[in-house]
Specification:
With 146 residues, the protein is an alpha+beta fold. It has one domain: Nuclear Transport Factor 2, Chain: A (Roll), CATH 3.10.450.50. It contains four helices and eight strands; from the N terminus they run ααββαββββββα. A hairpin with a 2-residue loop joins strand 5 and strand 6. The termini are far apart.
């Protein structure tokens, strides 16, 4: 019989592996931890919802291309039931200008560091949904936007 503690421990271990994959910028390792029908939503202006493992992979590849050294420094990890919430500072070096609402912001080599919250739903030991909330205003300011 699986207890709540066992479930929490398994989710915490998944969260740690997932964070390591992201901080290693290992797209294959990240995607291997997702369900086939996983969903990704970056709650930022104009960002489309990605549905299905291949669409999620494409969205993540885009982020890794924009911020090839992306890193999520954990502030707090909250684990419960079938999900975790990660509060972190997302940082990285911009590889090319980032398009935000039709405006190109930043330039190659610019650094960004913004607050980020990920809400991750887990099903069958894999990531089923990743909802990402970043401080878009801070990012725009750091990249020279208004």
């Amino acid at each position: 019989m699986t207890t709540a503690t066992d479930s929490t421990t398994a989710i915490r271990e998944l969260a740690e592996r997932y964070g390591e994959a992201w901080n290693s910028q290992d797209l294959d390792a990240i995607i291997d931890l997702h369900t086939e029908d996983s969903v990704f939503v970056a709650h930022a202006a104009g960002t489309p919802r990605a549905e299905g493992k291949q669409a999620v992979r494409g969205a993540f590849a885009g982020y890794l291309a924009l911020l090839p050294d992306i890193n999520f420094a954990e502030r707090a990890l909250h684990v419960s039931g079938d999900h975790w919430v990660l509060e972190s500072v997302m940082s990285g070096t911009v590889a090319q200008p980032i398009e935000v609402e039709g405006e190109a912001l930043g330039e190659s080599g610019a650094r960004v560091e913004v607050d980020c919250v990920d809400v991750i739903e887990v099903r069958d030991g894999l990531v089923a949904s990743k909802q990402t909330y970043i401080d878009s205003l801070a990012m725009q300011r750091q990249l020279g936007g208004e």
